[in-house]
User: Which sequence fits this backbone?
């Protein structure tokens, strides 16, 4: 039905049927804007209304269809709302154990030279990463965290209407990038709180996916698959599909989780980060390992001076201090045990984890878990939770220091009592 204003007439036209597929267009001011079939009329209309009020800013038709949302609300934004600091910051899966002291020294030393741009090729860091993983520098690309690399990869591979496959409830920032370039997400349910490689492969084959996203170990559930299963997934990727293997949490995982790296394999790109156990989340430093021709394509679209001089120095020093990484790994393992004990003491169940967080099953529905998160946040403990049922029966808590977990142990019974007695 057309919507009429004083000077504008909007119409939303849909052609085809449920079985034949649909194409749509938003008609405004005599102009038809083609739309991907999965976009709703109201979202498009809202975007166009905003657009018509800003005559000097001519946004793309795709951008006008996107929601004004972000994948995550950061802890600082929460604190600005409440006006209070968090007593325990356990929601963003940062390493509260901090970075290597050697990395801190390198950051401080590099500060005096910050007047210079960073090396646009990140030569020394890429060479060190290549040596660490037994590959060539041509197989390494660094970027502004895995988030930045995912954005560039989607820009390289995905156009309007292109199919992309992921798990329903997996990392929302990947979905954010796919939507931003007009891709169509096809989501596969988890199986027993694990991503389902078989179902993902079947869906990728069925829809001709350009990208297949798989996170191992998994965020938000903390579950993992063995290296054998991951290698079978790589070997079975359909022709024309690139496997995006997100290994952000691999440094926290047990031996036998990551298959050997074959940088010549064109079927997979592997994403890793300094934001987790290396303790450098504030630097925004990640890297990808892939076949040289694929890595070379990033040079066509990446921000060539996006990695600052200080960030490169800090990441290089952190990589060279593997003893610190091992120490943090041990701290994370101990924190996971403590979190499981805290959960059990409160009638909750901690799921097995190969990450630097523990996902805790609250034993109720998503409304209960959301209320528990709210109750903990009201007590100045920052936690998060999965977004999609049935995972949203859980909360997700970062592996913290003993002092952090003592705060959680103090306030969790209070928040639960408030919920159970209401």
Assistant:
């Amino acid at each position: 039905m057309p919507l009429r204003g004083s000077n504008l007439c909007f119409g939303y036209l849909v052609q085809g049927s449920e079985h034949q597929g649909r194409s749509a267009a938003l008609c405004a001011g005599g102009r038809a804007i083609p739309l991907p079939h999965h976009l709703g009329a109201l979202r498009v209309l809202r975007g166009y209304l905003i657009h018509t009020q800003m005559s000097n800013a001519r946004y793309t038709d795709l951008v006008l269809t996107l929601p004004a949302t972000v994948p995550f609300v950061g802890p600082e934004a929460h604190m600005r709302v409440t006006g209070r600091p968090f007593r325990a910051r356990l929601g963003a899966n940062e390493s509260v154990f901090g970075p290597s002291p050697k990395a801190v020294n390198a950051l401080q030393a590099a500060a005096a030279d910050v007047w210079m741009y960073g090396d646009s090729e990140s030569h020394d860091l890429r060479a060190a990463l290549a040596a660490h993983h037994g590959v060539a520098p041509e197989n390494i690309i660094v970027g502004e965290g895995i988030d930045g690399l995912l954005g560039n990869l989607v820009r390289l591979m995905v156009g309007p209407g292109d199919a992309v496959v992921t798990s329903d409830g997996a990392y929302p920032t990947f979905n954010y990038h796919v939507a931003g370039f007009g891709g169509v997400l096809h989501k596969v349910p988890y199986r027993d709180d694990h991503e389902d490689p078989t179902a993902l492969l079947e869906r990728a084959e069925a829809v001709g996916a350009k990208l297949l996203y798989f996170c191992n170990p998994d965020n938000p559930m903390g579950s993992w698959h063995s290296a054998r299963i991951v290698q079978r997934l790589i070997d079975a990727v359909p022709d024309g599909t690139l496997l995006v293997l997100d290994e952000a949490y691999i440094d926290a995982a047990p031996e036998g989780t990551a298959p050997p790296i074959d940088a010549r394999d064109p079927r997979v790109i592997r994403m890793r980060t300094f934001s987790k156990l290396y303790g450098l989340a504030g630097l925004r430093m990640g890297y990808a390992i892939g076949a040289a021709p694929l890595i070379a394509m990033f040079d066509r679209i990446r921000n060539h001076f996006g990695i600052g001089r200080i960030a490169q120095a800090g990441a290089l020093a952190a990589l060279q201090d593997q003893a610190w990484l091992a120490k943090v790994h041990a701290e994370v393992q101990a924190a996971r045990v403590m979190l499981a004990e805290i959960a059990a003491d409160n009638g909750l169940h901690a799921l097995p984890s190969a990450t630097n967080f523990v996902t805790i099953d609250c034993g109720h529905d998503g409304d209960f878990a959301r209320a528990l998160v709210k109750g903990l946040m009201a007590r100045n403990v920052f936690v998060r939770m999965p977004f999609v049922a049935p995972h949203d029966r859980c909360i997700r808590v970062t592996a913290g220091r003993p002092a952090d977990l003592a705060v959680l142990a103090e306030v969790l019974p209070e928040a639960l009592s408030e919920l159970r007695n209401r």
